[in-house]
Specification:
single chain; 416 residues; 8-stranded mixed beta sheet; 6-stranded mixed beta sheet; 8 helices; 21% helix
């Protein structure tokens, strides 16, 4: 197999072109019309008729979280990307390009036109055209998972997960941590650390019995990547390159990314699919205003409020038309991929946190009070000290006497 270097147009997702269809759109969150656009059935049928008449040379199937997906694409590069990101299971039976599976995704690079991402919730079919951005396919899968899993009591999360601690020390068993954050805020970079064992870098499912990954690959932002700052990602890319599995996308632009299977990441856990409940949870907020401290401990209703509002910033290039850092509120730290009412997800998260006595922290991966971005190593040190319980809470602020909300600014020495 050969490695791939691809230039896409656009270089990020196309949220304005994403539409939902069908009677089951009644389940969607009408309070977020920009993320849950509902289209006319005639528009879906017109595009479907146009796309289904085309020939799709590359076909694959995979299963994640108990859902079977069939993918048909006209592009060899995108077919390989799907193979990097998900465990292929089997090829289904095809009749006139119609794959048998729970959900079917048709991806067409030959038809010309504006970017369209059509998701029909009744027919369980997805149409993608007018965009060559690789991430559009994986985020369609995540949007579907984000819709289906809560109905089965499973919480889909836009976060990374990793184990830490000595797995060989019987007196100190490994623990699990989560990092929530919008694309570009540091989920992959901070969880890909030589001292951690990666579970997944972007999408995780939280069952009543514990955690599981949704994807079997990584899709890392690599703008400014250096071996010194990000040795784990650098080594993962080299491992993938040596096996002909590396996909590099849009090198030289702000949203440059690389795709590689999870098994290429040093010390990643690939021999099991279920993991313990997390002990520590981090909300990553790229604060462009320099208001938030480097790291804070949060409790009570503050956790719910921060999760439901998802204060952070969009990074340049992550969406079509985003040219500079933009302050934004993205509920669930992944609003475009969580189409049900926000309370559906926050209720499940709070229940899991309370049941498992999780510690929750807010991490500013953005600007400090001087308007300079916190150095990556400083942020890593903050998180590691928290994981080692090497900190003191400097101050507690009660913001609501009826529903206590406390925010503790953590004092861990010179890092803050």
């Amino acid at each position: 197999m050969e490695n791939i270097n691809i230039k896409t147009n656009p270089t990020g997702r196309s949220p304005k072109g994403k539409w939902y269809f069908g009677k089951n759109t009644s389940k969607l969150d009408r309070d977020r019309p920009n993320e849950c656009q509902i289209g006319n059935e005639s528009d879906f049928n017109a595009l479907y008729d146009k796309m289904i008449s085309c020939h799709y040379e590359y076909k694959s199937m995979f299963r994640t979280c108990g859902i079977d997906f069939g993918v048909a694409t006209t592009s060899a590069d995108h077919h390989k990307f799907v193979g990097n990101m998900f465990h292929h299971t089997r090829l289904g039976r095809w009749e006139k390009n119609s794959l048998i599976g729970d959900w079917k995704i048709y991806h067409n690079m030959e038809l010309e036109g504006n970017p369209w991402v059509y998701i029909h919730l009744d027919r369980r079919e997805v149409l993608i055209m007018g965009t060559s951005f690789l991430g559009e396919i994986k985020k369609c899968v995540f949007s579907i998972v984000g819709l289906v899993l809560p109905e089965n009591g499973i919480l889909p999360m836009h976060c990374s997960a990793f184990e830490y601690g000595d797995e060989y020390d019987k007196y100190s068993l490994p623990q699990t941590a989560l990092m929530f954050g919008l694309s570009g805020t540091g989920k992959t970079t901070l969880s890909a650390d030589p001292e951690y064992r990666l579970i997944g870098d972007d999408e995780i499912a939280w069952y009543e019995s514990g955690l599981s990954f949704i994807e079997a690959g990584c899709y890392a932002k690599i703008e400014g990547l250096t071996e010194e700052q990000q040795p784990t990602i650098f080594e993962a890319m080299e491992n993938a390159r040596s096996q002909g599995l590396l996909i590099e996308e849009n090198l030289g632009v702000p949203n440059a990314r690389s795709s590689y299977p999870l098994r290429c990441v040093p010390d990643a856990i690939t021999d099991r699919a279920s993991f313990d409940h997390p002990k520590n949870i981090f909300f990553l907020a790229l604060d462009a205003t320099g208001t938030l401290p480097a790291i804070s401990k949060i409790e009570g209703m503050t956790i719910r409020k921060l999760f439901e509002t998802g204060y952070t910033s969009k990074m340049p290039g992550t969406e079509d038309g985003v040219k500079e850092i933009q302050k934004v509120y993205s509920p669930c730290y992944g609003s475009p991929f969580m189409p049900l009412p926000v309370k559906t997800y926050s209720d499940m998260l709070m229940d899991r946190i309370i049941e498992n006595e999780c510690n929750v922290f807010l991490v500013n991966t953005g600007m400090n009070s001087e308007g300079k971005r916190f150095p990556l190593n400083d942020t890593r040190n903050c998180i590691k000290k928290v994981l080692d319980y090497d900190y003191e809470i400097e101050e507690i602020e009660w913001t609501n006497p009826i529903q206590p909300c406390k925010v503790g600014t953590i004092n861990i020495g010179k890092v803050i």
